[in-house]
Amino acid sequence: MARILFVPETFNLGETTRAIEIARAVRRLGHDVHFVGYSRRFSSRVTNAGFSFDLLNPELSEAQADMLIAADQGRSIRHPFTTAMLRQRVASERAVYDQWEPDGVVIGSTFSTFISARAAGIPLIYAKPYAMSLGHLGTLRSYPLCAETNRAQRLVNQVAGSVTRMMADYMTWKPRAFRQIARENGVELPRRTIDAISADLNLVCSLQPVLFSAPMGPREAPVGPVYSRSDEELPTDILDLARKRSRPIVYVGMGSSARPYLVKSVLEQLSALNVDVIAAVGKYFGEGQLPELPANVRVWDFLPAQKLAGIIDGSVIHGGEGTVQTACASGAPFAGMGLQAEQRWNVEMCVKFGNAVSFNQRSVKRNELPLLVTEMVQDSDLRTAAQRMKEHMDQLNGAAESARLIMDFIDGG
């Protein structure tokens, strides 16, 4: 029996649920699993799934977690990773390694582990999206800085793609804190930046390599989609609504990286339509902050969205990998809003396949969402493509494939 340590950034919902699904598959193979992390935000998802979890020091505050989400979306260059914080993170991780003695460490975007795992000589596995992977960067032709509604915008994105591809090939910059803490731990980081944040095995948990035969980089393996498959049941209100259906049902999911004012605008615009809206966005509003909405809009903090297949007629979602994959598994078309480059790629991949339409924050500000959603639920071509996408999703189990590759890699090492 092997011991596999999972270290996702638990302020990120998609990353946390991806780790949970892979951990379930590893446990089904008979191996021991343990989680650690730095944020309380979604750590309860881990314990509710039946896994042990230790909160490490230094704990991320809610403000620091929000700062990291803003940096990920390109809205800010500020981050909390000072030299002192990184030093303490690496020490905390190495202490866990010494105590628990894992045979492998599985991460999301937990960059301190690129130092700690190398220092401890433990195999490092990175469960990641295809966007900005080595394979993706090696063939990048366009970087979605802006919506491609005219020739000038397409040209801007093409130039940005060329620049990003060249930077990935030649950039050697690493933050001073990472260089210093690596030296203190006897770790020589790879010369190129992109190699420094690449693991011994990189599991590409995306649809692109499966649907479009996308190229892979060194140490990368396509496993297919990995998204939340919660054991929770749907609320009886939703089941009753489905039985008494009199008009389309639209699901709204915004993951963990949207902002309350944007979610509020989406709900208000959809409430004006002749549809029933079920939304898993309650976490964006504190007690008493949920806007007053008509009876056709029902809001929960969380829904097991993978169980909505056959119930919903469409989704309105952000472009997070897990949220997009769940929408694809529903067999219904979706309208997707990418809040940063990776999310825009996720949405555009489905637009290319034919089961989605895209919108952006400007669309919301211009009150364009009602017309977009009305057309989406009525479009027969979108519905047909959505059913074809579901057929693909039903044949794939990225979590099981990830577990198999992890154990093969560790056994082979």
Automatic annotation (TrEMBL):
InterPro entries: EryCIII-like_C, UDP_glucos_trans
Superkingdom field: Bacteria
Keywords linked to the UniProt accession: Transferase
Gene3D superfamilies on file: Glycogen Phosphorylase B (3.40.50.2000)
PANTHER family, per database record: GLYCOSYLTRANSFERASE, UDP-N-ACETYLGLUCOSAMINE--N-ACETYLMURAMYL-(PENTAPEPTIDE) PYROPHOSPHORYL-UNDECAPRENOL N-ACETYLGLUCOSAMINE TRANSFERASE 1
Transferase is among the record's keywords: yes
Start and end residues of each Erythromycin biosynthesis protein CIII-like C-terminal domain: 265-393
Taxon lineage: Bacteria, Bacillati, Actinomycetota, Actinomycetes, Micrococcales
GO MF annotation list: transferase activity
Name by which UniProt lists this protein: Glycosyl transferase
